[in-house]
Specification:
Layout lengths: L10 E7 L6 H17 L8 E6 L6 H11 L4 E5 L6 H12 L5 E4 L11 H9 L4 E8 L5 H16 L12 E4 H7 L9 H8 L3 E7 L12 H15 L2 H29 L7 H33 L13 H6 L1
Parallel strand pairs: 1-2, 1-4, 2-3, 5-7
Antiparallel strand pairs: 4-6, 5-6
The protein binds uridine-5'-diphosphate and magnesium ion (MG).
Magnesium ion binds next to loops.
């Protein structure tokens, strides 16, 4: 099934902002031009919006957003969070708040490091039936060497842990109303959108672009936040680290059985000093048992952890049913 979408599309561009006064004037200008160009090309409707989500900034960001809204309330909207809750939460807030007022939403960072020229392609992919269109960096020469290497390690590590994330895709993507509704059913507090969105399913496609440099201001993702984000991604999606403890427990416990047998043989052969056998037996035995016990307990904690997320067990994309037709 590959249904295209006809008619006017109301687009919302969602931009999380944290202390972005240095970039906001330029960003607002560039996005306004972009939206106007898209409207002129009849790719989107004139009800489309640019939505800034102020993530508890301490600088003049909110004042700027308020000014844009006052000057052009039809185009610019603003959402102010009561305190800094982090990029992922700010982004989720924007997406979920706007989902009932738009057909599709594009999320993008305030510094426009991600090329806004590909929004046209995203929309045409959406029109030809894609529900989620991922913006993927074809190269990141403009990023620092450290950022490139750390990102590469992170993607590889996540893959190793069995987490389905899209290589070189950050949070620049287009999502249709259906996938936004599906996303709203994920109620987890520890948010890692890049892991959740591929879980939603639907028809997806990719648009490639070269990542630019931040044109003003500084990165709001210092090393501390980056590590926290990576750790969040790993612990929110994988219980493999717990599995490692269980495996280690099994290995050590098996070795301990061999060691116990060995020390008993030595003991009965009279080749030991007094106390050595009992020491070795208890050392290996207890060590192995503790690790195994930890692993097994961990397995249960892993299950509890997955249950408490209350993730939806399925998402219906379409339904062919007489009763459902009558309802519409
Ligand atoms: N951001 C946010 N809350 C935060 C940190 C960052 O809303 O606590 C926003 C920030 O304003 C930007 C986006 O998240 O729009 C990405 O941040 P940045 O460009 O600094 O990250 P980098 O590109 O350096 O990874
Ligand atoms: Mg950036």
């Amino acid at each position: 099934m590959n249904k295209g979408r006809q008619g006017d599309i109301t687009l919302a561009i969602i931009i999380p902002c944290y202390n972005e006064e240095a970039v906001l004037p330029e960003t607002a200008k560039r996005l306004q031009n972009k939206i106007n160009a898209l409207i002129a090309k009849s790719l989107i409707s004139d009800k489309s919006k640019i939505v800034f989500v102020d993530d508890g900034s301490q600088d003049a960001s909110w004042k700027l957003i308020t000014n844009y809204h006052t000057e052009n309330p039809h185009l610019f909207s603003g959402i102010k969070l009561s305190k800094n809750r982090g990029h992922q939460n700010a982004l989720l807030c924007g997406l979920l708040t706007m989902k009932d007022f738009c057909d599709a939403a594009v999320s993008i960072d305030a510094d426009l490091q991600d090329d806004i020229e590909i929004i046209d392609k995203m929309i045409s992919q959406y029109k030809s039936g894609s529900e989620i269109v991922y913006g993927v960096r074809s190269e990141r020469k403009k990023d620092t060497v450290f950022k490139r290497i750390s990102a590469q390690c992170f993607y590889s590590f996540m893959k190793m842990l069995g987490v389905d994330i899209i290589y070189n895709h950050a949070d620049y993507r287009l999502m249709g109303k259906n996938s936004l509704n599906a996303l709203s059913q994920y109620r987890e507090v520890n948010l890692f959108l890049r892991g959740i969105i591929p879980m939603l399913g639907y028809k997806t496609s990719f648009v490639y672009y070269a990542r630019a440099e931040r044109f003003a201001g500084e990165s709001k993702y210092p090393l501390r936040k980056m590590l926290k984000f990576a750790f969040e991604g790993i612990t929110s999606f994988s219980i493999k680290p717990i599995r490692c403890i269980t495996t280690l427990g099994i290995i050590i416990f098996t070795v301990s059985l061999v060691m116990i047998a060995y020390s008993l043989i030595q003991y009965f052969g009279g080749r030991t000093v007094l106390g050595w056998s009992s020491m070795i037996c208890s050392l290996w035995g207890i060590g192995g048992l503790i690790l195994l016990g930890l692993g097994i307990t961990g397995e249960y904690i892993g299950k509890i952890y997955l249950e408490t997320k209350k993730r939806p067990r399925f998402t219906i994309e379409e339904m062919l049913c007489e009763a459902a037709d009558a309802g519409h």
